[in-house]
Specification:
About 80% of the residues lie in helices and about 0% in strands. It is mainly α and about 200 residues long. It binds fe (ii) ion (2 copies). One fe (ii) ion binds next to α5, α7 and α8.
């Protein structure tokens, strides 16, 4: 059954949507509105989280490198350590661009991922390909966390109009993706197969 509403408000809004759209969006100051918005605060908080995570990785990567068996994997961890130091610096730059002091806030996720890496070292034997497989897996978990985080942060930065920060984070994101691919290459390049052939006699 059709009912005719006499509600002037709804009738008016239905009639004049086109006009309203044209006059409504004030070109008012995205940037002024943005500086203390909830999303801005959330964004800065998330930067603190990934800042903690990157600093944690600077401490963790040398441990992974030391524990690795193959030279290729050792090299990969070493290269990514220097990139990771750069990630810390980029985040410091990002804080500065946003008018904040760099501050770290504990990232429980990265704490867990690095703990897993430590238990891989504990649970596998030195000099085995099985250990390397475990280290690659641990490394990839860290990379994927970073990839997800930076991907999301870049979108938020763009939404907030911080294109300079977005560009900076994009550079880091590329390096994370590259590190992940290198680890995949190492796994596919033979250590997984080698590990599958390791028997108890190797211990
Ligand atoms: Fe990183
Ligand atoms: Fe990374």
């Amino acid at each position: 059954m059709q009912k005719t509403h006499t509600s002037t408000a709804s009738a008016r809004s239905a009639r004049s949507t086109g006009k309203q759209a044209a006059t409504k969006t004030p070109s008012r100051s995205r940037s002024a509105a943005v500086s203390d918005s909830r999303l801005e605060k959330f964004f800065v908080d998330e930067l603190k989280d990934i800042y903690w995570a990157e600093k944690k990785l600077v401490k963790t990567l040398p441990k992974l490198q030391k524990a690795a068996n193959s030279d290729e994997l050792k090299q990969a961890f070493e290269n990514h350590l220097s990139e990771t130091e750069g990630h810390v610096e980029r985040l410091e730059q990002a804080f500065e661009m946003l008018g904040h002091r760099p501050q770290a806030k504990k990232c429980e996720a990265m704490e867990g991922i690095t703990e897993e890496g430590a238990s891989v070292i504990e649970d596998t034997d030195e000099g085995t390909a099985t250990r390397d497989v475990g280290l690659v897996l641990a490394g990839q978990k860290a990379e994927h966390y970073e990839i997800a985080t930076y991907g999301g942060l870049i979108q938020i930065a763009k939404t907030l109009g911080h294109n300079d920060v977005a560009q900076l984070l994009q550079q880091t994101l590329e390096e994370e993706k590259n590190a992940d691919q290198i680890l995949t290459g190492i796994a596919e390049g033979g250590i997984n197969y080698e590990a599958s052939e390791e028997g108890e006699e190797d211990q």
